[in-house]
């Protein structure tokens, strides 16, 4: 931890407060709604908040008196706890709302929910099935709406994951990330985030799982400006590609909205597993990442997850610090003395 921290501290740029101020009061539905400079600034602020919490005088109360509504259609561990603990650490409050235990279970719609919650709270974070639900919340809420996950995208996860990669390697440019397995919301957000921040990205997914071409083309377009190399394979990449991979990333094969015949598909999908054999074919010092929860023995094996080649646990921890930075940018006063 000390080694990675010193690397990160050496490379991290000063906080671009102008870039963060431009985010105040806005929604965060997709990383692509923000500039590279703003995403970089969020990472710099997250590093400062993490350092203050772990090694300094404690997290400053930058969101004292602020309240975050957290609406969940789906089960959650990391998203709920990282946002709730993050708000608490910043001096604010977070309210957990299970959509099935509100009036939405009796047909109240998202428009009315947005209008109501925005009257009580300072921001809304929602973990939902459909991306259009977030768009509806954003349309009718005058307060910021944050995408805590949808079937299409998971931007908070990826913003944090790229922070973890930067923290470990001391940089993002020149790093090569490969996602292998069933293409999903995490893979799409990872492709977009890598393209925005100049990270080379390889997507390896079986042909039977169709890639959203609109999102992939968007990532390619962004990559042309940032200099990222984007590659897509419908099998595991050849050795010459693998030997340049620094991060082998995967996610569950079966998501909460998509059920698979895993027994039937195991012979195919097991070829994409993140394990010691795969890491041995990657670049020296390659690391494994997984957004969790993991089904050990399927998309990843246990020994890698708990090895020195795993970034899984710092990856989970960093969700809180990066989301704190996001909340401060959207809700906080970056000109106050406590933010110095």
Automatic annotation (TrEMBL):
GO biological process: citrulline biosynthetic process; L-arginine biosynthetic process via ornithine
EC code: 2.1.3.3
Coiled coil residues, start to end: none
Segments forming domain Aspartate/ornithine carbamoyltransferase carbamoyl-P binding: 26-167
Molecular function, one GO term: ornithine carbamoyltransferase activity
Keyword line: Transferase
InterPro entries named in the record: Asp/Orn_carbamoyltranf_P-bd, Asp/Orn_carbamoylTrfase, Asp/Orn_carbamoylTrfase_sf, Asp_carbamoyltransf_Asp/Orn-bd, Orn/put_carbamltrans
Start and end residues of each Aspartate/ornithine carbamoyltransferase Asp/Orn-binding domain: 173-329
Catalytic activity as recorded in UniProt: carbamoyl phosphate + L-ornithine = L-citrulline + phosphate + H(+)
Domain of life of the source: Archaea
Similarity field: Belongs to the aspartate/ornithine carbamoyltransferase superfamily.
Descriptive protein name: Ornithine carbamoyltransferase
Gene: argF
């Amino acid at each position: 931890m000390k080694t990675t921290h010193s690397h990160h501290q050496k490379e991290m740029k000063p906080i671009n407060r102008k870039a963060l101020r431009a985010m105040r009061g806005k929604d965060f539905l997709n990383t692509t709604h923000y500039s590279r400079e703003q995403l970089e600034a969020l990472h710099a602020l997250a590093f400062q908040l993490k350092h203050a919490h772990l090694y300094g005088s404690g997290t400053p109360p930058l969101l004292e008196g602020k309240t975050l509504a957290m609406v969940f259609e789906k089960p959650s561990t990391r998203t709920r706890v990282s946002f709730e603990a993050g708000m608490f650490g910043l001096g604010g409050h977070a309210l957990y709302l299970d959509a099935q235990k509100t009036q939405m279970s009796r047909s109240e719609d998202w428009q009315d929910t947005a209008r109501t919650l925005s009257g009580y709270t300072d921001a809304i974070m929602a973990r939902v099935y459909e991306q259009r639900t977030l768009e509806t919340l954003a349309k009718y809420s005058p307060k910021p709406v944050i995408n805590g996950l949808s079937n299409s995208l998971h931007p908070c996860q990826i913003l944090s994951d790229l922070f973890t990669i930067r923290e470990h390697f001391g940089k993002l440019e020149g790093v090569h990330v490969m996602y292998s397995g069933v293409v999903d919301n995490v893979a799409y957000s990872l492709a977009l985030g890598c393209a925005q921040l100049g990270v080379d990205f390889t997507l390896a997914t079986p042909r039977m799982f169709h890639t959203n071409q609109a999102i992939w083309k968007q990532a390619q377009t962004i990559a042309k400006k940032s200099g990222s190399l984007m590659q897509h394979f419908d099998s595991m990449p050849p050795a010459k590609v693998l030997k340049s991979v620094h991060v082998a990333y995967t996610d569950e094969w079966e998501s909460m909205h998509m059920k698979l015949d895993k027994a039937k598909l195991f012979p195919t999908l097991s070829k994409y597993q993140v394990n010691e054999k795969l890491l041995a074919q990657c670049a020296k010092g390659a690391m494994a990442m997984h957004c969790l929860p993991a089904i050990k023995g399927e998309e990843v094996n246990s020994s890698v997850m708990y090895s020195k080649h795993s970034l899984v646990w710092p990856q989970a921890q960093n969700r809180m610090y990066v989301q704190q930075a996001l909340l401060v940018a959207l809700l906080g006063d970056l000109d106050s003395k406590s933010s110095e």
